[in-house]
Structures are given as C-alpha cells and as structure tokens.
Amino acid sequence: MKYVKALFAAATLSLSVFVTAAPAQEDPGPAAYSQALKGKRVMLVPMAMGFDLAQGWAHYIQTEVEAFGGTFETRDPNWSVEAGAQAITEAISSDTRPDVLIVHSPDLNSYARLLKKAQAAGTYVILIDNPANFAADAFVGSDWDRLGQLEAEAVIKGCGPNSSKKIGLVQGDQVNASSLYQYAGITKVLAKNPDFQVVAKPDSNWDATTSRNVTTTMLQQHPDICGIIDFWDGDASGAAAAIRDAKLQDKVFLVTTGGGEKAADCDNLENGTYGAVVMTELHHQSRDINAIIKFLLQSGQPAGTSKTYIYTLEKATTKADLKPDSCWDLKALKTAAK
Amino acid sequence: MKRSGLHLTALSQETIVAAIAVIIFIVASATLPGFFTAENVVSIIRSVSVLGILALGMAVVIIGRGIDLSAVAVMAMSVAWYLQLLNDGSSGWQALALVLAGVVGIGLLNGFLVAYADVPAIFVTLASGSFVFGFVRSQLIAQDAVPVPPDNWLQLFGGLRFLDIPIEVFISAALAFVIFLFLRYTKWGRYVYYAGDNPVAARNAGMPVRPMLVFRYVLSALVAFLAGLLTAASLHSINTRVVNSTLLYDIVLVAVIGGIGLSGGKGSVRNVLFGSALIGIMLNAMTIIDIPLIYQNLIKSTILLVAIVIDGLLNPRDEQTAQQGDI
C-alpha cells in the first residue's frame, strides 16, 4: 500500500511538472509554419499530365501540400498551349485563386503576360523544368545548357578515342528552351573537342516516328556514326528503333535525357537501348519545389519581388552505374497512391 | 463520272504531283550523295508507309463523299488501349477481340450517324475522334505513351524483314493492292464512286447507299487500327500525343494532293501512292540536306501550294467540274 501511495505521489508530481513546464518548451516554429501554410492553394499546370515527369511532380508535391493542410490541384492542358493559357487565366480570375502557381512552360514566351498578371493578383509563380522569358518568383529545373554538356561528354566517352568521332543530334524543335539550350551546351563541349564533329542535326518535333525516320536517314548517310544524342527520352525510342533496324546497336552509342522513370530510362539502360541517360532526379527536384513553396508562403514578400534559380543536380547514368535506386518507379507511386 | 475529263486536260493534278515528285527525285539523286541507294529508297517508302495506309482508308471514305477525322485518334487510342490491356496482364486474344470490337464499334457509330442520322461527316468524325481520345486517355490508359510488353508478338513482328525490307512496306503495298482491287473490280467498290458522285441518283438506281456508307467508316477504323499496330511494332511503344500532331492533316493532304477530290466520286489508289511518294521524297531529301524542321514545313507547304495553284490554272473550276458539296 505504501508503495502504491508513493507511486501515486510520484505520478502526480511528475504530471504537475509536465503541465507547468510544457508551455515553456513550446516551439514557436510549427505554429508559425502552420499559420502561414494552412489552407493555401497550390496549383500545378504542366504541359500535360500524361507523362512521367508531370505525374511524378504531382505525386510528390501533393503529398507535401496536403501534409501542411493546403489544397493541391492540377490542370491538364494535354500539350495544348491554348488550353494551358486558359487554365491559367481561369485560375487567376476564380474565387479560389491559387496562392502558388507552378507552371511547366511550353516555350519561352507564351505565358509571360499571363504569369505577370498572376503575380499582380498576388499569386507566387514557380516555373519548373522549362525556363521562360519571365521573372518568376522561382525557377526549379534543369540547367539545360549544363545538361547538354553532360550529354556531349557522355557521347564522347561512349564513342571513345578510337572511333569515327562522328556524332548525330536529334533535336527537339527550334522554339522550346530545353531544346535550344541543350544544343548550346552540346556545342560548348564539342568546341573543346574539335576532333568530334556533328554530321547531322535534324529535329524530331518530339515525335518518335519522326525521330526514327530522321535517324534512319542519318545512319544511311553516315554509317560510321559512333554516337547519337536524342534530346528527349519521349522520342528517343524512335532513334533507338532506327539503330536497331540498322543493326548498329553495338556501334552507335545513344544518349538521351529524361525524368529518370524506371520504365522510360533505367529499363532501357539495362537492356542496352540507351548508352547513357542524363537523368533529372525527380524526387530531389520535387523536394526543391516543395521547399520553395514553403519558403515563399512564409516569406511575407509580395509575389514577383524576388528571383531564385534552383537547378537540379544532373548526372549522366550508364548501365555500369545503374543502382536499384537510380530511377523512380511510376507504377510503384501509383500503387502507393491507391 | 468525270473520269473522261482526264483526256481533255492532259495535266491533271495527279500528273502534276507525279511530275513534281519525279523531278525532285531526279534532282536529289543527282545532287545528294546517298539519296539514290536501295536502302534510302526503302527508307523513303517506309517513312510514308503508315501515312500511306491511313491515307488509303481516308481515300475510300473521301471518294464516297465523306471524311474521317477520327482516323488518327482511332489509330493511336485503339493500340494504346490494346497495349495497356496486355501490360495489365490480359491474354493476347482477349485483348485483341475487345479492342477490335471497340474499333468496329466506333466505325459503326460514325457510319450510322452519317448515313442514317444525316449528320455531316466532318462533325460526326471530329466529335467521335475527340470522344475516342478523351475516353481512352482518361479511363483506359495511364500515360501518353504505352510500351509494348517485352517479347510480345508486336516486337518480333516489327523486327521482321524480307530481303532486308521492313515488313510494313509489304503490308502497305498489299493493302494498297487490295483496296485497288476492291475499288476497281468489286461491285461495292464501283458503287463507292457512284455514291460519291451523286448519292441521290445512286440510291434511286437501287444501290444500298446507306449500308455502304457505314461499311466505309468501319473499314477506315480498321485500317487505322492496322496503322497503329505497325507504328507500335516499329517503335516498341505508342504515343497518344500523335493525336495532337499534324498527322491528320497530312493524311487528308496526301489524299487530296494526289488528286482525290474532297467532293467525292473521283480518285483511286494511284492518287494516294503519288501523294505519299511526293511527301516521302521531299521529307527525305530535306533531312539529308539537314534543313531545320521549320524550314521543312515551309518548303513542304510551298510545294504543295504550287501544285494546287498549277492545278487551279490548268483545270479551272466551272459549272461542269464543280459540284454540290465541294469544299
């Protein structure tokens, strides 16, 4: 009985200590964080929702935004610039105007005016992946110039010093910033390696069939090409098909770039379709986007008054440096979401 | 029938296009190294084989005074759905049967609305194409691009070669021949011209104009599905983004530039072949010269405009050649 009493006393004592001490140990951070972020609206307008990058971003951003009590929405322009512009216009003028607008711009100029309007209305604008001629509150994405340099270095390494040193490029188009800057980066590296030369540089217009047709022609004109850089893994399947058809898999080193999704990139490195892929680490990139969302919403600065560039760390991955976590798995994300 | 008009004007649009194609071919052969080789000629034919197949289906519809703007949507979405079913573990035959039923269903719907509900073909197929794209994209598949599962018959099929020539070249040639036989030597084939030239007269003469119309849209949908399968076989995946591309206009263009009038009743497989040849030769030559895509589009459209203008000058439209329903 004595023990019970003593225990009881001890318990009361500790409880009282706990009760009185608790307010003194309250961290002011979470409350401020929650106050600044709770109920905030975040909207993602990618070029389309139907491809790996967009679905990956949406997954990672949604998880974070919902965790801090905000609402997350996406719009799917399905590769249409007009539909994207309309989605942005509607978002700005609606009663539920987003506090943060994340935009994946299709080209350098199309959305510039609209996004300025969004900032004027008080919405922070974050540009992702594709840069644009517009002073966004933040840009998160690849340094496409650097990415082009990495591709060129990978293809030079893949070709080797004893090869023909002839390289073909399958560009995207002549308006998209990612294509233009990628080309600029490649040119810089090749300027430093003058013995390597670009023998052809057709555009695929991001279409796999076109990529296949131009690559077929390229390989017929220059059968001794040792490496090809295709500017996107979305159409590089076409270049790969042309190489396969010409039975040159062992002779042509194909380099491309992509979002690091397993089926799109790692599987194709594994089976030898691609020699190297400069992968965007989507998980890290999404984390950067989330961090800048949290920062902007707490900063107190008006929209459109600051400029931040956050470039994602890129690296060229070959079959030799494939690790189980080199890629992220869209299928797994989807199963997890269910 | 205005086929007799060919005698009066020696230079029809078809001959003009064929002549331009031949001229470009000769000039390119003489000036571009590596153009006039067996491999390059094969790759020219191959690069337009899927386009040509789609244009053949379109040609039959256009000759019957219709148009099928759902062709590209049916091509991409049917195959995307098929591959999605395979990736999700359906058995091959089950998936194929299901997708074939869907394809035939869309063809029937198009044909029924045009033939029996009297809705203009351009609206029906525009709407059904959007519907097919929207429904399949949102309900049935997960991503724009659907890969062919490993070791599927399509992969092996895409790698098939005969005399080092890709299989799709033979398939498009065979299809062109079959459609030629159909249009030229079968009763329903001949009826396509009559119905396209003057549907009312054809009907009064006792031809089953409406069932034939339905049949043509079903045929067009099936041809589109075949074109999609060939695309997937070669690329090991299908990307539904192609629905937003200019492919649909290219198909109509190949048919029309070859000399198949949008007003119906005239044209044949030959026109499609000439139209495809012109496009294929032009694109190939420009790729060899390494002309950027924007200039390629400019040059392509200029040459096509020139062909149309020459045709307009040599074969002016008058009361005799113009007809109701001319676009």
Descriptive report:
The complex is a heterodimer of chains A (338) and B (327). With 338 residues, chain A is of the alpha/beta class. Chain A folds into two domains: 31-142 and 282-314, Rossmann fold, CATH 3.40.50; 144-280, Response regulator (Rossmann fold), CATH 3.40.50. Chain A contains twelve helices and twelve strands. In chain A, helix 9 links the parallel strand 8 (227-230) and strand 9. In chain A, helix 4 runs parallel beside helix 5 (112-120). With 327 residues, chain B is mainly α. Chain B has a single domain (8-314), classed as ABC transporter involved in vitamin B12 uptake, BtuC, CATH 1.10.3470. In chain B, 71% of the residues lie in helices and 3% in strands. Chain B has helices at 5-8, 13-31, 38-47, 49-63, 71-87, 92-115, 121-140, 153-158, 167-185, 187-197, 199-204, 209-235, 247-257, 269-289, 293-314; strands spanning 145-147, 161-162, 165-166, 237-239. In chain B, strands 1-4 form a two-stranded antiparallel sheet. A two-stranded antiparallel sheet of chain B has the order 2-3. In chain B, helix 5 crosses helix 12. Chain B is globular, with a radius of gyration of 20 Å. The two termini of chain B are 18 Å apart. The model of chain B is unreliable at 1-8 (pLDDT under 50).
